[in-house]
Structure prediction request, 87 residues.
Amino acid sequence: MNANTYAALKELNYYASENTTFEARCDSQHLIDVNETRPPFDFVYLVSNQTANDHKIIEKSKLSNIIAHKIYLDFADELSPIIQGKK
Prediction:
């Protein structure tokens, strides 16, 4: 698991770097080519089931709810001035 995590983070870092192009062929007839220079994600969240105080969240659904709530709070905080018309 550690090796896969490390490899995924290295790929994310590589494709998020400037001057990197993601190239792919999405079909066997080579009709659709992808050449993308934008980073793959605007936001990246690295999560663990363990807090700084060694509290562990074992149940997957509870962890998913906590992650969803955290992401909601991040975006709600950023969007609240726009929603309230206070740019």
In short: The beta strands are 22-25, 33-36. The radius of gyration is 18 Å. The chain has a mean pLDDT of 83. The chain has two helices and two strands.
